[in-house]
Amino acid sequence: MLRFVARRAVHGVIILVGLSVLLFALLVLTPGDPVELIAASTPDIKPEDVAALRAYYGLDDPIYIRYFKWARSVLHGDLGYSRTYGTPVIGLMGERLRNTLALLATSVFLAFIAGVAIGIYSALHQYSVVDYTVTVLAFAGLAMPVFWQGIVFILVFAVWLPWFPAGGMMTPGVEPGWPMFWNRLWHMVLPVAVLATSGMAAWTRYMRSSMLEVIRQDYVRTARAKGNSEKVVINKHALRNALIPIITLVALSIPGILNGAVLTETVFSWPGMGLLLFQAVLGHDYNVAMAVLLFVALMTVLFNLFADVAYAMVDPRIRYE
Amino acid sequence: MARAATPRQIALELERRRREAAGVAVGQSYWQIARRRFLRHRLALIGAGVALALTATALLAPWIAPHPFTQIDLQRRWQQPALTGNLFGTDELGRDVLTRIMYAGRISLVVGYVTAVTISIIGSLVGALAGFYGGWVDSVLMRLVDILISVPTLPLYLILAALVPGGGVGRIVFVLSVFGWTTVARLVRGQILSLKSQDFVEAGRAMGASEGRIIFRHLIPNALAPVIVASTLVVGNAILIESALSYLGLGIQPPIPSWGNMLQRAQEYLLKASWLAIFPGLCIFITVLSFNFLGDGLRDALDPRLKT
Question: Is pTM, for the whole model, over 0.90?
Answer without folding.
Answer: no
